[in-house]
Amino acid sequence: xxxxxDLKLQYQLHKAEIxxxxxxSAAAAAYILGPNVKALEADLAAYCQCSHGxxxxxxxxxxxxxxxxxxxxxxxxxxxxxxxxxxxTEAIGILGATPVFVDIVPETFNLDAALxxxxxxxxxxxxxxxxxxxxxxxxxxxxxxxxxxxxRVVEDCAQAxxxxxxxxxxxxxxxxxxxxxxxxxxxxxxxxxGMVVSNDxxxxxxxxxxxxxxxxxxxxxxxxxxxxxxDDLQAAILRVKFRYLxxxxxxxRRHAARYTELLQGAPGIVLPIExxxxxxxxxxxxxxxxxRKAVQARLAEAGVSSFVYYPVPLHLQEVHAALGxxxxxxxxxxxxxxxxxxxxxxxxxxxEQQDQVVDALRAAAAYR
Length: 368
Prior knowledge:
Blueprint: H1 7-13, H2 15-28, H3 35-47, E1 52-56, H4 59-69, E2 77-80, H5 87-94, E3 98-101, E4 124-127, H6 139-149, E5 152-156, E6 164-165, E7 168-169, E8 176-180, E9 194-198, H7 201-210, H8 232-242, H9 245-263, E10 269-270, E11 278-279, E12 285-289, H10 292-301, H11 331-339, E13 340-343, H12 351-366
Parallel strand pairs: 2-3, 2-4, 4-5, 5-8
Antiparallel strand pairs: 1-9, 6-7, 6-11, 8-9, 10-12, 12-13
Helix pairs in contact: 2-8, 3-8, 4-5, 4-7, 9-12, 10-12
């Protein structure tokens, strides 16, 4: 079976370096906010064209603490997309704020900036775009609307570290950017991990304080915070893998281009597009198909893994029932939830594996 992502192979290819880094971290015994965390924060902040990086326990905390640093609380509204993982709105709801949804662009799966301004109300405080599948959102109109209405912008970059929009890295354009190091991400650790990056020194310092129980000085606490710290051991692993990130991005982009070339014109398959003047990093290569369940079953029979990100849009999830949405409110997000199918995508993929995926998908989508 061709996997969606092959983490075992990636580890085997870099085992010696990773094992050595883990041993050094263990021997140093600086397990909490140790030297690897500090070095990774500096390296990734610079990589993301930011001046500050704050390692946290996971990307959900990165989103939550970023919104906290923006002063978000009960009665506030945060505009975001209904087509993403629940962590995005979970971070909003934890603070007692309300998510306000804007439909997506069907071709990119990202928030439609043309619909954004109509969603702004006197209670709107933050716009939270999600760079889904590694494709940057159209940030210029988002930033323009935010500026004109006095709103803050928090970027959800969980799937898009290193992606660029008109020469700017995701995470550097808003007030704060949130990264995920979940194992399957383009830069993943051996458990959970995340980071907030920013060019706003005050906001980054606030996040840094909140991740340590809300105190600037040990045992002195000025507000309720969290215990949300990236482990030194995970940072050591990430520092090794970071050396290869650009190489892996290039490989993902080659695979994506080859998928597009081989699947162009295939009946029953709608291919993803890359908008002008961006560099997508293809955390996922996601097509659209009809009768998806049957297509997935035929792929599995042919030895090809696939996955659905995401089968139920957030406005139709039980957790958001109180918002009063129903089917038809965000039709493009609903259609994407019915049709989106992610194919195997990992840097180490061979052309033979990709050919097998393409042949199986062509046959599965054309089957009647």
